[in-house]
Amino acid sequence: MGTASFREYSGPAAQLYQDFFVPSIATPASGELLRVADLQPGERVVDVACGTGVIARAAAEVVGPNGAVAGVDVAPDMLAVAAAVPATGAEIEWTEGDAVSVPLPDASCDVALSQMGIMFVGDKAAAASELHRVLAPAGRVVANTPGRISPVLEAMRDAIADNVDPNLGAFVDVVFSMPDPEILVRLLVDAGFEDVVGEEYSASLDLPAPAEMLWSYINLTPLGSFVGSASEEAKDAMERQFVEACATHVVDGRLPVDQPMALAHAVRA
Question: What is the pTM of this model?
Answer without folding.
Answer: 0.94
